[in-house]
Design brief:
This protein has 403 residues and is of the alpha/beta class. It is 23% helix and 29% strand. It has two domains: 101 residues, Roll (Urease, subunit C, domain 1), CATH 2.30.40.10; 301 residues, Alpha-Beta Barrel (TIM Barrel). It contains ten helices and 26 strands. The chain has an eight-stranded parallel β-sheet with strand order 8-11-12-13-14-15-18-19. It has a six-stranded mixed β-sheet with strand order 3-2-7-24-25-26. Bound molecules: zinc ion. Zinc ion binds next to loops.
Length: 403
């Protein structure tokens, strides 16, 4: 791991052309040394030998640190006391800045189950937010998590607003089809198959979660184009017995159907290492995403109460907790802090752990042609990590995101 030099003078603004030097560079399948990462006009221009750089290219010395692709979190609800269920620019600004500070360069604003009117207000806010350039992690769209969920598998989702997809309300949400990237629902509910077909038609990722589905409920949805499984093991059905017969649930389908991508909350709390290892062995780093599922409790001290939708929770034991301690309520860890957990506890090679938090989620939402890895032509979204995976600096579109 990098052993950073302490005092490096950095320009307050990056020039349009520059080279990052003296770092380890995380390419998609290897980590290289002795190379420079060249950026021009907001994009990655080349990765080339550090000793052959033209003399007119300004060099930024990163002091031996790790130069990684900016992380991409496709399932994040909030941070620092704010959530994406709040339809305000102030909430969006707090969450996206805190993510940028931690090396997350893009994310999907993820909503929790709420009244349809409030979800519409959030979508409207996201649409306005995305129309103008913003500081902080870039919003690539919205992940609508719920409200079409199984009551039995609601986890920390607000039961007051859980509903079925055949009640017509989804069209109000789909008014914002251009910014919805993922819509997560329980595939066993009435209307779920028609919803899957509608989402596929609109180019929105149909995802399953908070579900009591048995295999026979899930397979028709997958055949219709459902492709993603959110937070495996969390609010996800598993094998049950009917008389002598074992019936696989959504978990076993997630682990075995090669058409699917999946997510794990890799905070070291939601899942013990053995379960994360099982997901990794079954899906591999190119179908399994690390996600934060961070709540507004992320970045707040233990004991702090926080709200999401109409529900109240507490930061406790390094995780979001229901007040009655019956279930977790999302994580309080942002994506950068999950990399060392994947490496140290699950024994995943660093290059693959990084890919699970960058290129793989980029591919899930179809933005991998321009984001997710340090490759020529892609956006210069870069996280420069210290040895403990706190972000030393974050670069978005070729400029410092935070200083
Ligand atoms: Zn959830």
């Amino acid at each position: 791991m990098p052993n950073p030099a302490p005092d490096i003078k950095l320009p307050p603004q990056l020039p349009t052309h520059f080279a990052l030097v003296s770092g380890l560079i995380a390419l998609p399948s290897e980590i290289v040394t002795g190379q420079a990462l060249l950026v021009a006009d907001g994009r990655i221009a080349a990765i080339s030998a550090a000793d052959g750089l033209p003399s007119d290219v300004p060099q930024i010395d990163v002091g031996g640190r790790l130069i990684a692709p900016g992380l991409i979190d496709i399932h994040i609800h909030g941070a620092l006391g704010r959530t994406f269920n709040e339809p305000t620019a102030a909430a969006f600004a707090t969450i996206t800045r805190e993510n940028a500070r931690c090396g997350v360069t893009s994310l999907l604003a993820t909503t929790a189950t709420d009244a349809i009117d409030n979800l519409v207000a959030v979508l409207e806010c996201a649409e306005q937010w995305m129309k103008t350039p913003q500081p902080g992690a870039q919003l690539l769209g919205v992940h609508v998590e719920g409200p079409y969920f199984s009551m039995a598998q609601r986890g920390a989702q607000d039961p007051a607003h859980i509903r079925n997809p055949d009640d017509g309300s989804v069209e109000q949400l789909l008014e914002y089809r251009d910014i919805i990237r993922i819509l997560t629902f329980a595939p066993e509910l009435p209307g779920a198959l028609a919803l899957t077909q509608r989402l596929v038609e609109l180019g929105i990722v149909a995802a399953a979660g908070h579900s009591s589905a048995r295999e026979e409920d899930a397979v028709p949805a997958i055949n219709a184009g459902l492709r993603h499984m959110i937070h495996m093991w969390s609010a996800q059905s598993t094998t049950i017995r009917e008389g002598p017969w074992r019936k696989p649930g959504l978990l076993e389908v997630s682990l075995t159907d090669e058409r699917l991508t999946g997510e794990i909350i890799a905070d070291g709390k939601h899942l013990p290492p053995t379960l994360m290892k099982l997901a990794y062995k079954c899906l591999g780093p190119d179908r399994l995403c690390a996600i934060s599922d961070a709540t507004s409790g992320a970045g707040l001290p233990a004991g702090t109460r926080f709200r999401m939708g109409g529900m109240e929770y507490e930061v406790s034991d390094g995780v979001g907790m229901m007040l009655d301690r019956s279930a977790f309520a999302g994580s309080t860890t942002l994506l950068n802090a999950m990399i060392p957990i994947l490496v140290d506890q699950v024994h995943i090679p660093l290059v693959e752990a990084l890919r699970m938090a960058s290129l793989t989620p980029a591919r899930v939402i179809g933005v991998d042609a321009r984001k997710g890895s340090l490759e020529t032509g892609k956006d210069a979204d870069i996280a420069i990590f210290d040895a403990d995976f706190s972000a030393w600096r974050t670069i978005i579109g070729g400029q410092w995101a935070t200083l």
